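Practice problem 4.
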């Protein structure tokens, strides 16, 4: 009589659950899949071998052969599952997988690119229908062209559009939407017919939220200075301009197959690629607007101010002082203001509006200590500024191009010290944020307290003009009450009217609001200059974030640039 094995059924169910869940994991979690495979496979094998051990006495040879066969079968099963995952379940993802390094350069599988050289890729158009990129076929070989290159400096569009190169792969929108642009997705029937008939395959087109005129103007305003500018519609999250400097010209990475000297043409492209990747190039492949992470300086006082308003019992908004020095803990150096005797300029009684308008460090350090680490972190997380242990797996602030999450601190325990918490409250500490995220902070205030999901692609259309997909505005969450959003707009208006940032009002005819930031980053180096802005203040249509690397005080160059950007946005309406 066979012994009863009560553990067989639950062990087999557990093994199948591990294997079933693991095989569906994304390629970024390959190590977890292998762990599940090496746990689930042997566990299932143990059940199988245990069954063979129940053969009648006197059949030792049969039992040994059966066990050996079971071991071979388990190994074959595990190998088959790995091949099934790579060749079928994740085949498309692995084939199109793109790795973006810290300097913005990308590594991807060039085989899909080579296979689509004869495909006339879909066009990329701006919000007004102006063609930013399209493909033409020369002797049966398709290549990317940029019709606006004669009108605009294409380095303004490089990080957004990205490049498409048989040699160097893809980046930007060309990479993210490659399946649509090549026709592999959204136009499958036509692709199948083209394989049978031999006709040229055509891809689908993207219509962006970007305004080409505004993008070019903003890039010209930023000029040769390193930095980034983001302009978005706070009501929808649509990105109207996304500029990063230094940039690159995607047309310079395209080989013209009709060039008289093809070898020289290839050398030209190779030289340009080498130039982009030189150590002294300034990382032009890095999209500073979405991937560059900087200390925000005093622009982060906007988040601290929201936390104070959302927690008035602890924050006590209008019971504040602006001393020359503040000691959050006795064994640490004091926190000081950027301007001597700033409290006298603010006047008495000090209020949240006044200390915000004149950017008092010691006041906001006090606010942060009053709130405590947990409350400040909770409000920052509403804005998608996370402590490192709370960043959602695979989180991307912007899905259309590579983007990085913003961090409240680098170390999970950093805010445990009062001095570190105080530093964070006025925008220093270990804060690392992207210009896009600070634009979203301003946009949430402009949009009555609701932060919208940012997006670059408005719609995707087939070659015949029929629509495959259209974006719809999507609210991420309410980050503050409507009343507190209204108060914050008043505070930002005060900055533009009489505070450290009033220079912005010289460039725009309509009332606007903003907040300057001067961010220390490397001892001895000039600080980064920040400014966030909204306008017009009574019914905001634009939210702006500006950073100029090592640009000095934010109330100077950055405030002027923000005013010029808003003026350009009003002009192209």
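Answer key:
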């Amino acid at each position: 009589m066979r012994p009863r094995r009560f553990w067989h059924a639950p062990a087999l169910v557990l093994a199948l659950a591990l294997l079933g869940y693991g095989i569906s994991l994304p390629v970024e979690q390959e190590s977890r899949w292998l762990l599940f495979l090496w746990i689930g496979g042997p566990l299932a094998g143990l059940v199988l071998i245990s069954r063979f051990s129940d053969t009648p006495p006197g059949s030792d040879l049969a039992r040994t052969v059966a066990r050996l066969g079971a071991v071979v079968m388990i190994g074959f099963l595990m190998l088959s599952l790995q091949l099934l995952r790579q060749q079928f379940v994740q085949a498309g993802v692995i084939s199109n997988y793109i790795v973006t390094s810290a300097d913005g350069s990308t590594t991807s599988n060039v085989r899909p690119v080579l296979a689509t050289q004869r495909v006339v890729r879909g066009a990329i158009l701006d919000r007004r229908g102006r063609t930013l990129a399209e493909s033409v076929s020369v002797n049966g070989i398709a290549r990317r062209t940029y019709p606006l290159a004669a009108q605009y400096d294409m380095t303004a569009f490089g990080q957004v559009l990205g490049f498409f190169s048989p040699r160097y792969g893809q980046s930007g929108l060309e990479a993210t939407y490659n399946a649509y642009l090549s026709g592999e997705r959204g136009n499958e029937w036509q692709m199948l017919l083209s394989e049978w008939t031999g006709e040229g395959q055509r891809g689908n087109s993207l219509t962006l939220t970007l305004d080409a005129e505004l993008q070019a103007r903003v890039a010209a305003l930023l000029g040769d200075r390193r930095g980034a500018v983001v302009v978005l519609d706070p009501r929808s999250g649509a990105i109207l301009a996304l500029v990063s400097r230094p940039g690159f010209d995607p047309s310079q990475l395209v080989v013209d197959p009709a060039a008289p000297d093809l070898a020289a043409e290839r050398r030209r492209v190779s030289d340009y690629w080498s130039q982009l990747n030189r150590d002294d190039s300034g990382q032009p492949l890095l999209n500073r607007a979405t991937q560059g992470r900087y200390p925000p300086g005093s622009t982060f006082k906007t988040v601290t101010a929201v936390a104070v308003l959302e927690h008035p019992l602890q924050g006590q908004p209008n019971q504040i002082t602006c001393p020359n020095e503040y000691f959050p803990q006795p064994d640490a150096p004091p926190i000081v203001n950027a301007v001597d005797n700033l409290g006298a300029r603010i006047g008495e009684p000090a209020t949240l509006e006044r200390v915000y308008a004149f950017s008092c460090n010691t006041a906001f350090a006090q606010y942060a200590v009053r709130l405590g680490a947990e409350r400040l972190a909770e409000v920052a997380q509403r804005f998608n500024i996370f402590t490192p242990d709370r960043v959602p797996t695979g989180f991307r602030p912007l899905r259309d191009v590579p983007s990085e999450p913003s961090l409240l601190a680098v170390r999970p325990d950093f805010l445990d010290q009062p001095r570190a918490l105080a530093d964070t409250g006025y925008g220093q500490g270990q804060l690392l944020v992207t210009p896009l995220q600070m634009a979203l902070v301003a946009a949430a205030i402009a949009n009555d307290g609701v932060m919208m999901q940012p997006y670059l692609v408005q719609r995707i259309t087939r070659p015949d003009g029929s629509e495959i997909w259209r974006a719809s505005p999507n609210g991420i969450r309410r980050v503050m009450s409507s009343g507190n959003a209204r108060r914050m707009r008043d505070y930002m208006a005060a900055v533009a009217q009489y505070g450290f940032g009033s220079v912005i009002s010289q460039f725009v005819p309509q009332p606007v609001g903003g907040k300057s930031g001067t961010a220390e980053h490397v001892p001895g180096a000039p600080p980064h200059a920040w400014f966030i802005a909204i306008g017009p203040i009574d019914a905001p249509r634009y939210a702006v974030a500006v950073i100029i690397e090592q640009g000095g005080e934010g109330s100077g160059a950055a405030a002027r640039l923000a005013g010029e950007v808003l003026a350009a946005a009003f002009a192209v309406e």
